[in-house]
């Protein structure tokens, strides 16, 4: 049993610890602003193709496989915007954008996350290596950097029909959350707009 003189100190410490825990719990329950990304404008669908395309979520590191919005103050450091997140994990968010955009081209009989039958005709596989805002050093310019490696694979024989790396940088005027999200949106639109004709041609 602790000496009688330590009891008040222990009680104070326990009380302070309890208050800190309650405070942390309160801040953890504060709602985050949720942001989404839009697909680029698609021209009127052409005659629908015959092939079925399955779009897989791209592989990504643990730092990117989250709904948090990543910022890099240095090449080796990853942080996240406070009080903000994407509407889904980043790889799933990109998968959704690609499914919607590729379906709107009308170049495939169907585009989805899973094949309608036993297997699709083609699978679009990817690896996401960059999806963050960057500003290296005090006063350095801020930009959004996206880099996605894609492979179009024919399902019947697992042959790689086409592969390409898509990389986009979009400048941001400041590091405010709304400005960065707008830069992410613009960068994503540009990248998806580059992916569409490549995937359509490779899968036709």
From TrEMBL:
Gene3D superfamilies per the UniProt record, alphabetical: ABC-type transport auxiliary lipoprotein component
InterPro entries: ABC_trans_aux
Membrane spanning residue stretches: none
Record's keyword annotation contains Signal: yes
Signal sequence interval, chain numbering: 1-20
Annotated ranges, domain ABC-type transport auxiliary lipoprotein component: 35-195
Keyword Signal: yes
SUPFAM superfamilies xref list: XCC0632-like (SSF159594)
Pfam families noted in UniProt: ABC_trans_aux
Domain of life: Bacteria
Keywords recorded for this protein, A-Z: Signal
Protein name (record): Membrane integrity-associated transporter subunit PqiC
């Amino acid at each position: 049993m602790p000496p009688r003189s330590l009891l008040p100190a222990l009680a104070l410490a326990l009380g302070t610890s309890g208050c800190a825990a309650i405070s942390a719990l309160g801040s953890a329950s504060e709602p985050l602003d949720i942001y989404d990304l839009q697909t680029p404008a698609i021209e009127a669908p052409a005659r629908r193709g015959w092939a079925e395309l399955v779009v897989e979520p791209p592989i990504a590191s643990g730092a990117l496989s989250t709904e948090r919005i990543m910022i890099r103050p240095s090449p080796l450091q990853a942080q996240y915007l406070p009080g903000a997140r994407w509407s889904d994990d980043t790889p799933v968010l990109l998968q959704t954008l690609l499914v919607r955009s590729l379906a709107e081209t009308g170049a495939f009989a169907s585009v989805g996350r899973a094949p309608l039958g036993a297997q699709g005709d083609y699978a679009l596989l990817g690896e996401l290596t960059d999806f963050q805002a960057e500003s290296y050093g005090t006063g350095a310019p801020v930009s959004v950097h996206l880099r996605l490696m894609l492979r179009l694979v024919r399902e019947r024989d697992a042959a790689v029909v086409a592969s390409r790396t898509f990389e986009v940088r979009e400048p941001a005027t400041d590091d405010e959350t709304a400005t960065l999200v707008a830069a992410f949106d613009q960068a994503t639109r540009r990248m998806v707009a580059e992916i569409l004709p490549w995937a359509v041609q490779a899968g036709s």
